[in-house]
Structures are given as C-alpha cells and as structure tokens.
Amino acid sequence: MNEVKIIILGTAAMLLPTSAIIIFVILYYRRQRLQREKLEHIEELHRQEMLEASVASQENVRRQIGGDLHDEIGTLLSATRMSLSQITKYGDNPSKRENLLNQTQDLLNEALNNVRRISKELMPSTLDEFGLIIALKDFTQKMTEHTGVLVCFSHGELIGKFDSKIELALYRTAQELVNNALKHAQSTIINITLRENNNQLILQVSDNGIGFDLEEVNQPHRGIGIKNIESRISVIKGNIKFDVEKGRGASFEITVPL
Fold this sequence. Notes:
Helix content: 55-70%
Strand content: 5-15%
Distance between the termini: 78 Å
Strand order of the largest sheet: 1-2-3-5-4
Shape: elongated
Structural class: alpha+beta
Largest sheet: 5 strands, mixed
Number of strands: 5
C-alpha cells in the first residue's frame, strides 16, 4: 500500500512541473493573443480615424470649391449675363454699347482669372510642370513677400522630380504646416528642408513660434488639421514625427520611401 502511495506521489511530483509548464504556455499564448487583438483594435481605430480625416478633408475641399464657384464665378457670370442683356437695349447708342461691351469683357476676364486660381489650388501649375523643389522654392518666396515672415527653403544638392503623388502630398503638407505656423504659432521664421537619405525623402518644417499642446490639438472639437496631415502622409506610406510643446517652436519631420 505504501508503495502505491509512493508511486502516486512520485507520479504527481513528476506531473506537477509538466502541468505548470503547460499552464504557463497556455497563459502566455492567451496573453499574446489578447495583446495582438488589442493592437489590431488600436490599428483599426487609427485607420478609421485616418479615413474619417481624409473624407472630412475632401468634403472641406469640395465645400470650398463649391463656395468659390457659387460666390465668385456664379456671381460674375450672372453679372455678365445681365450686362449682355443690357447691350441689346442700346443699339442706337454706340458709346453706351461700347462701355457695356468693355464691362462685359472685364467681367469675363475676372471669371477666367478666378477659374485659373481655383485650378492652381487644386493642382499648382509650378508643381505639375517643374516638380516639388521648384514649387516649394516658389511657395516660400511668395509667403515671405506677402506675409513679412521669413520662410526659408533648402534642399542641398537634391535635384529632379519625384513621384507625382509624393510631390503633391508633401507640397500640401508643407503648405498646411506653414499656414498653421503663421496663423497660430506667431512665428517670425519658418524653415523648410527637403533631403534624401537611404532611398527616403525627408521633409522637415520647423518654426520659432509659441508651439502648442499636441494632445489638445488632437481633440475632436479642435478640427482635423493634424489628422488630415497624418492621413495624407499615410496614403504615400510615409510617417510623421512631431516635436512640439507649448512655449517653444515646433518641428515636423515627414519621411517617405521612394
């Protein structure tokens, strides 16, 4: 009887470490699965936020274009139609007729200029024709001239053009970051740098402004500025790093694989 107890106890003693190992492995893989599911959930939420930001950005662009077409182009064309209808009433008055014709021509020219402006906002002609480097150089020069804020651009020995999607995304991102620095950061100097490293294109935008709280800016009620930028960069498989805090200048570094 004692021998049976000894055998049972011995077997139990041998099985105990094995059972402990089995339980440990089960718990380990369960924890790994839960962490993986949690990570997938976070990634899905991030993708959803990026999608919502992208859709919201597109809707904002559509509203802006719609507003421009309605308020500016529509108004000018309505005035042109009225001017043309007036011309027929002055067939026997050459002087008045000529004035109306000149007025109509001015209205049409203004409408054409507005159409060109809207087209440039959708796809800047400089970017389309000459590429990102020339477009950023042109953009920074104009911003310096029109705002009085020193906006500098450097690209080292980098030359040539890149993929059109990458160029457009980086150009729009630089525009948005510069505009944000001008509107909210009270910056007096803004630096834009473009360089290539290890087959990656790196755009850096920094300013000497008052900075901001990134967590506060990312709140839903504060708009979609940062999420809009992240969404635009994610489309070209890039990533963005923020170095910001209240009380000092902000720096943004966007890295895109070529």
